[in-house]
Amino acid sequence: MLPLSHSLGAGGAGPAGSSSSSKHAQRLQLIDEAQQFHPQMTAYLESWGLHNVGFGYDLCAVLGSQSTGKSTLLNKLFGTNFDVMDETQRRQTTKGIWLSRGANMPVLVMDVEGTDGRERGEDQDFERKSALFSMASAEVLIVNMWEHQVGLYQGANMGLLKTVFEVNLGLFQSSKQKNSGLKDKTLLLFVIRDHIGATPLQNLQNTLLADLGRIWESLAKPEGMESSNITEFFDFSFTTLPHKLLQPKEFDDQVLALRQRFTDSKHPGFIFKTQYHKRIPADGLPHYLANIWEQVVSNKDLDLPTQQELLAQFRCDEIANVAFAQFTSDIRAFRRPIEAGEVLETLGGDMAAHCQTALAVFDKDASRYHSEVYKRKRQELLDKLHSALSPFVLGQLKNLHKRVLAHFKRTLLENLRGDGHDFGEVVRVERAKAETAFAAAAALLMLDGTDWNTAEEEAQLREDIQQIADQCRVEETKKMIVLIERSIKRAVAEPTEIALGKPGPEMWDHVLEGFRHALQQAEAAYMQKAKSFNCTEEENSIALRSLRQKAWQSLRAKVDEITADSILAARLRNIFEDGFRYDEYGTPRIWKPEDDIDGIFRKARDETLELIPIYARIEPKDESLLPSIPSSADDPEQAAAVARGEEDEFNFGASLVVFSETRKADIGTRFRKEADAYYVEAKRSTVSSIAQVPYWIYGVMLLLGWNEIIAVIRSPMYFTFLLLCAGAAYVVWRLNLQGPLQAVVTAILREVHRLADEQLRAHFSQPLLQPSMLKEEPVPASLSRPTPSEAAPEEIELKEKIL
Q1: Is 13 helix (H, G, I), strand (E, B) or coil?
Q2: What is the pLDDT, as a whole number, of residue 14?
């Protein structure tokens, strides 16, 4: 490969040349004579300041025979410094295709190797390739020729132009298929050199147009273009220049005038019109030109629109990757807080802003390329941006779900703490608030152009809210049932105590009547409150069953409390005392020898013993009073729960038994012992009344104590004490307090007697014996002392008299 660049005189090299050369003087050998494309065109564009101008540049090329002054013309027109021919040697100067920027104008100029050169001889391969390349890339083709070549076939490059026309027919045929008949025109500017003025320009123009028309008519046109005209694809412009050596001043003036047509957009003959531009952004030009040259060299059909699309795809992908890389760097800040469970309030706006920034970066550079490709790549980039944001959106929705759910549960529990609330209304209001808050926050995350939706997340939120509501409903139902159970306990406690305190055949009827009334009130209270819980019929049935069981268990607990051993024994003892120690008027009995103590004792004892079976089993006279409460075994679900250990087993039939037969016998035995003690006491009181002092003893006592009586009467102190005793006796008699006074005195004496008896027994139970006398002799069975249980009542009575 030849050196990348060189210049005339003190001209610089490429972008890294000497500082003495300006950036407009730099030139690039774009394609060398070995048909290799230069890979560093982008660096030259940057050094020329054209890399980021978008469509704000123009590209022209020059064609013509070798040594016709093409490079000289370009240098004069655009201020370039292409190598020119040495007049003394007359040899080829331009090899390959060179590229440079025009001085003080955004124009790229290609100096193409001349045709019909002796160096290449009959090898026209590079001539055709360079012509095709120039046609595909340049907006304007400057055809440089001498005046005397007009009318010639080879001299006027008509053969080369014929090749160009044939290729363009193929190009525009593809363009027509892809762009609905839209055709890109190219301007052919014929510059006729060394014009002496003998033949007017119009005649020269007519000659060239006639030759071009004949060439066009001779072409084998593609299908559908048989009747097409050359002017549909090409525009033509003609100008002349005087002889450079013979008329140097006129030549320079004409070149300056021609330059204005390239630089002044208001000039009527302005050359760089919009319809000629290939619509290739400057930053994509190197890739575009490289692809065109690759297809030209490979002898492939040159498809200009396809090359534009390929370039657009390549550049749009590059631009999109740059925008996406910056985008991913910007959104990386979202990851940590979202993974930590935070809810970013401004996430939706931030995501939209980052997307707009990335699209703005893309649009700035990519919008200049092929519109369809640009739109497609823009949508691909947008989809890629949305895909990158999708995990953050899902994480935000997950965190939002947790926060809304926690807030719903917290506010629901706060609103359920007080009394008098409607559970269903509270749940409905809080559910609406939670769903509205979630939907509003989720809507802020939905970006335009996405197919995101929150239907699944909202459905999951509703499901979780329902679970929390159901859990709270179960807990509230339990609380309600507990409160109702407490009310049942309070309601059945007093009636049960009263009924069991007055035992009789209809005792359980009274108990069950009170229980039925309390249960009815409890069920009514439950049904009234359950309406706000939105409970189903099945749930109400289960709750009422549980309520009945709990209520019955509360009743049984109260019955068990009242029928405890100590309480029941005291109750039976009181009932026995009422029948044995008091008469039918409630007056305490003072036993006399003539009273039928045995008959009264047996009657009171038997009547009391008859109450024990009544206490032992809940068995009302009216069986309809028994509640209908199913046992655990009767309900499959409850039976399964009992089997799992979740509930205690409940057996209504077994609960009717208050205490067993064994306990009945034990209670009866203990009661008989206590009753026997009362019987012995009554008998003892009659024995003491029988052993009274004879009446004549009182006369003897009066005779013997006459002096003392007189002493008392005469003594004021003794007499006053006597009057007080007599007054007290009168008051006792007048108020009928003999019985209570006697009972009090008797109780005191009995207690004194008991204490004395205990002291005497304790004293005499320890005899002072010698050690030799400690050996006990066997006592005959006839003399052995019977046990208290074997002693006859007469022996007990005798013992009491002795004591």
Answers
A1: coil
A2: 40
